[in-house]
Amino acid sequence: MKSKKGKIDNRINKKPSENMKDGSISQSMIRKGLTITVTIFAALLLISIVLIFVVSKKIDSISGADAQIKLSAQGGFSCEYSEAQKLYPYADGIIKITSERIAYLNLSGSEIFSQPVSYQNPQCVTFGDYVAVFDRDGYNFTVLDKEGVWFSKPTSNPVKAVQMSESGFIAVICGSEESFGEVDLYDRDGNQIAAWTSYNSGFPVCCAFNGDSSLFAVSTINTSGAVIVPYIRVFSINKTSKGYEVDDYAVYTSDDNVIFASVCYVGNKLCCFTSNSMYEVKDNNLSRMNFDFSAIGYVKKVGNNLFITYSDGVSQLNKLAIINSSDSIIYNSNIGTNIICVAQGSGYYAINVDRRVFIYNSSGVITNDYAVDEDIIRMNFLDGNKLCVVSTSGVHTIT
Fold first, then answer.
1. What is the dihedral of CA 201, 285, 168, 380, to 10 degrees?
2. Are strands 66-69 and 366-372 parallel, antiparallel or unpaired?
């Protein structure tokens, strides 16, 4: 018993110096561990705060003001699907197009005015304050605004496409058996001011006016040789005391065997688009821009920025790129699988994709993001930047 008690006493009654040494080592290790733990925690907290800020900003830029909208509960009127396919949002109401009649309706569906026609394949084009309805492959077109019909004109050759300018000029592309085709220019009173027939440049594909309607560009494609050759013909439009004079201004081409399917002006800068690339006239040459667009969908101009939808290939997500007047991409992001339609207004851009409607301002910032409960056929901005949507059940407005 004594030996055991002695062992116990010896174990408890160590020298003071030894006890202090063991204690100091233990406290030092604890302090060191706590310091490391606090440092790691502070670093993780800082990283978390940064990530939360970045992700929240990204979510804000993608989703905007998220809202679920039941279209049938919005202002407008209901109609059958077959009827809805004939309706085009415009101004303060709706343009209704049939083979027998062109009518302008208010947002309640009541007719304001109408014009009888006899079109086999009527097509409608809205541009700012103006509307053109033409009989594709037929021989007539009609121009109107929200106040009434301006004029209806017969053509000598079948109409293929119609384009308008902000000043009210109308360009009509027609086919021809004697040439590759022709482009006729009319003023807002329906007077023909020029007619250009393409004998050497190829088939007219599309056309565009610049902002003040002083320049007019036509894209053509020549297929008569071993390879296709694209041409861009530019004409000047000048007002004189005797009326308007339209003269040759420039001709551009490219060594690339491409088709310029659409053209537009950003200010006086001419931009041309193929199915997968963008060209610009720079230093009097048509040059390809260094943008990676595998498959271009829609091209719209909002202010001085270009809104371009594209994808990286078949079955790939669609993207939206916004290019400013300095040719810099200020926005480029995935937007969805199936793009139904797009619309541009004075300072705003709308795109309907996968039953979502995204609204952008001209700088590429998403201002609204709506989820809708019906399939949309087409949409357009009305006066006052109200978005009018034609869906499978009728006409609806979103403020």
1. 100
2. parallel
